[in-house]
Amino acid sequence: MQTFTRGIDRLPERPCAGAVDRALVASALPSARTAQERGKLEQGLHGFTFRCSVKTSSDSILVGDAKTSDADVRSWHKHFLPKSDNDDAIEVSSGAVRALSLDSDYATAFIPCTPPRSELPSRALVVDATTIGPTRAKGDELRQVVVDFAYQLLRHAYEAGGCEEARDFPDALPRLTEGRVVEEPVG
Q1: N or C: which terminal CB in the chain sees fewer CB atoms within 10 Å?
Q2: Sheet arrangement for strand 90-94
């Protein structure tokens, strides 16, 4: 029976080139016969992108993209808050790191970042994270997992992409139960 349900357990301890914890992925995605992961950093003249995806044979996917951006906190809020289908977007933060949970399967994270060798005025690193297909976690539990995934991806991409500012990252962001409901963009 294990050969049909241990796909995620066979992933590396830290999938996506070391970006995220396998246990976090396992808490989001249901058991499956097989699982595949991919993490890729792409450097360019306009900054960098780091993509992480884990897909199971049961067509469940946990995916995130970290991209450099010219956004500031205010424009980041304005861009993402309209994507929330409900009025309960929750923000958590620690220092310069901010994350928004827009619904149970979608989150975004933000941190100021000056990428190396960029020809454009990039000022931030922004992560979009989501699940596609069936999930193991549901509701508030899934919401927290997707925010944690976005944060782990942000932290890894910040280092891998070589953002010029020196930062100390907390092990984790505050729990969503400690966050605040966001109704309008704030700076």
Answers
A1: N
A2: 35-44, 47-56, 61-69, 124-132, 106-112, 97-103, 90-94, 180-181
